[in-house]
Amino acid sequence: MSVKTIYLAGGCFWGTQKFFDQFEGVLSTRVGYANGPTENPSYQEVCRSSGHAETVRIDYDPDTVSLTRLLDWYFLTVDPTSYHRQGGDKGVQYRTGIYYTEPEQLPEIEARYAQEQAKYKQPLLVEVLPLANFYPAEDYHQKYLDKNPGGYCHISPELLHLAGK
């Protein structure tokens, strides 16, 4: 089995992780802080506008699920025209972004992005950038909504069970 990785910033990372964990072909997820200017920030630093985005690392089996399909699901969970805000969360850490690690991923990302852009009159505000850095979040953030089922999430509960899990 081959394994590919994509990093998706979709607002609060708790819901984004829970959302992607439900799909066949998603091998593992990890929440963390990406594409910021400093090394190994704490959650408190990120909340004080460190410049990092709350991001989910998704390791997936491309023979089971394509990057395009992952991006289809991603766009179900975000408002791609919202600037530094998703749901009730606002701030630079809640920006949306697709961060890739392999240049070969870019044409597929750009094609799916263009498809999404065609649905809107205003420009999409989802960053598409190479991953500059990723620092795993503290352990209490990992699988947070599994540990705290009543925790806040900007993603509708129906979407958290889209795959029937």
Task: Give a quick set of tags describing it.
24% strand, single chain, Peptide Methionine Sulfoxide Reductase, Chain A, two-stranded antiparallel sheet, six-stranded mixed β-sheet
In short:
With 165 residues, the chain is of the alpha+beta class.
Global mean pLDDT: 96
Q: Which CATH class applies here? A: Alpha Beta
* Model regions low in confidence, pLDDT < 50 over at least 5 residues: none
Kindly state the percentage of residues in helix.
10-25%
Coarse morphology: globular
Count of DSSP strands: 8
CATH homologous superfamily descriptor:
Peptide methionine sulphoxide reductase MsrA
Structural class: alpha+beta
Q: Sheet bearing the most strands, described?
A: 6 strands, mixed
Gyration radius, rounded: 15 Å
Query: Within the largest sheet, what's the order of strands?
Result: 7-6-1-3-2-8
Helix-strand pattern, N to C? EHEHEHEEEHEEH
**What's the CATH topology label?**
Peptide Methionine Sulfoxide Reductase, Chain A
Strand content: 15-25%
Q: How many H/I helical runs?
A: 5
